[in-house]
Design goal:
Blueprint lengths: L10 E5 L28 H14 L3 E5 L9 H9 L6 E6 L4 H11 L3 E5 L5 H8 L4 H14 L5 E6 L8 H11 L2 E6 L24 E4 L4 E3 L8 E2 H4 L1 H10 L13 H4 L2
Parallel strand pairs: 1-2, 1-7, 2-3, 3-4, 4-5, 5-6
Antiparallel strand pairs: 7-8, 8-9
Length: about 270
Amino acid sequence: MFDRFNRNITYLRVSVTDRCNLRCVYCMPAGGIQLLKKEEILSLEEIAEVVQVGAELGIKKVRLTGGEPLVRKGITDLVAMLNQVKEIEEITMTTNGVLLSRYAEALKKAGLNRVNISLDSVSPEKFSEITRGGNLEDVFAGIQAAKSAGLTPVKINVVKLSNGDNSQANDIRKFAEKENLKLRFITQMDLRTGEFSQVEGGEGGNCAICNRLRLTANGMIKPCLFSNKEYSVREYGIREAYLLALNTKPKKGVINSKGSFYNIGG
């Protein structure tokens, strides 16, 4: 399906939860967040239906995000459900990797193709500081499990902090080279001011070729991360929500004064 600017929209990013087991300084406010109520969050069956309708319209790739997708109960079942949608050619996931060693093999068997793992430092102390208490060894174990399960190529997402403290970059590059991991550097974004740039090592942030829509955990289809527009699949119906998002997708992202990274999926 094509938007007003003749971009072929084939990619849906699905936030399956607003919950997360880390509290990264660039994502979660120090004072905590107002979590969605359980009844507001789409069921696994509802998510699968949204993907099915999207596939009929032209969606070919799905990425599962959060929050942290691996804290969503039944995430492996969801992957299996999406794998039954014949038009979907690729199912991927962005995860912090903390729980990945538990789920990697089952996710692969269910139909997950590969993972992106967020990792902003290979120093245990710095990692704990950035994530407000995370254990780096859990992520290392998740990376190895992903490689062993065949969730490859494993990509590492590194956020370049706006405060200029990117002293970990060289160490992460060395680690990625040693472990045969692909690196993507993402400049810290600001939804409120509209600050973003193209991903180094990826295509994200390049509005001219953007081919994605987003589904939030509470059922809003968003045309753009940097937009306030969103359309409820429960209120409008799935197909109509897709078409509304498609027809209001901006040429370039501007600002988002309502959403947050933790509940849209970054």
